[in-house]
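Convert to structure. Protein one:
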Amino acid sequence: VIAGAIWLLTEIGDTLASPTGEMWKGLAWFAVSGLLTTAAGRSLYFVSVRDLGAVRATAMKRVTPLFSVLLAVVILGEMLAHRTAMGLLMVAASIFLLFGESLALARRRRRLSDQPGEPEFLFWRGYGSGALSGFSYAAGYIVRKIGLVALPNGLFGTFVGAMTALAYYAIVAIARPDQRAILKAELRLHNAWHVLAALAISLGQIRVFAALQFTTVTRLAVISSLEVFITMVLSVFIFRSDAMPGLVTWIATILATVGVIVIVL
């Protein structure tokens, strides 16, 4: 709604002035990006949370920037300058540090909480879903970039992608009674924090599309990887909802921050 409203007020004329073929091509790519990110990526992530728990699922989500860079180089032909490659390696090292720490913690918890006879396939299905979620989000970045080449309008792209994902969830809700019940329960929630979270996510999606108009997928993916560290700072120092992180987390934070500074400068 936010992206659509701003688009109607500011950029609808530019979109309609685009060649018809390019407009339809861009619209199709934007729709696919919505299915890859807001539909497939998010659904697979929650499957991973269900099977693995939040700690391990979050660790798996951190592979998204690495998939994004790989796909950008292979599909879009983006080149990695020496400075970008150096910054990427630093960010990758930070991600693997956090990934290893999260997995070690998850294994300890699993040894303490596992019940005899628990299906082992749930464990591996969770990891597979997490990896596929990261790949879906990465592919969504690539598809968005391709769509913006055909139709350079980030607000329209955000709107189309979101509406396509919304249509997907509506179809699923119609086809499956259990999902319909979940959707009804969610729509009955009246919580100011949910509204603020939705607004933050919406503005984030709009800015991601805008950023893709001016930079490469590689740079955007690496900069976006700072999300986990910004979340840590907010949760520890601002909202005080989490305990002070350990040494490994601080080392990873410093590595990632320096890596992004190297890339941006």
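Protein two, convert as well:
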Amino acid sequence: MASLLEDLRNDLVCQMCQNHARPGKRQWYRCLKLHQICQDCKVITDDLVEFDRYKCSCGEPISKKYCKMTEKWLSSPGLKFNCGNAKNGCQETHSENALLEHESECIYRFVPCPFKALNNWCKKRVTYQKVIQHYEKRHNILKELKTPVAWNELAMSGRDCFFPLVKTSVTNRMFLLCSKTDSLIHYQWVYLLGSPIEAKHFSYTLKFNGLDTITFQGRVASIDESFDTISGKCFSIAHKSFKAQIVDEDRKYEYSLIIRNLKEEAKDENYESGISDNDGDDAKL
């Protein structure tokens, strides 16, 4: 029985969006050529009926009633669902409760190219496992973390510009230091090559040394996040102020970057306090 359900699940692919069944979406339709159409695509075609697009992608009309049998087996207890990134190569299946967590960390998920956050030019979404190769091939080689940083005339001018991504590793995880000037504001932030769930465990400290010293502490952003969503995680300062306080007469400045693993630090604190990972919130010595 389990094998039959697995075969049915693998064969159930929407003709229009090429996606497998999703949890909670149990209504599937058919066109006159017996192609299967998922609930979401059926809703889209219903909205386009006045434009004479109430049809399957093959051109045939879609049934108005969904398949009761498909609805029944999609409601089977313990049924596992294909990852939403199956089109990109993922072959994993999970129960409804575990599926979303897997998909948020799936190496086949789409993420924005980090170059888009720098200058909004690259619109391409690439799979997580290939995002670094894509960046290095299409845009620039990643630079190693080093100091001092030298600014060219464009950077000094305050006009919109971006700087090469700088990579560093902490506990075998890759982090990217990103920098750009936009609308006379200079921004710097740190991406983790990891999921939003993983990024919550890391923070960073940027310290700039020049005529003055500026220190900024923020949360690390996930590579999944766009520039528009990380405003609270960015160091930002007026370009004019940064140049006056930090950049020297040779157009250079010194900085340091410290990345903290908050999860590991919490474990160390618990260990030193005699609290194990299995102890509850009210655990005492």
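The first strand starts at residue 29 and ends at 30. The mean pLDDT is 87.
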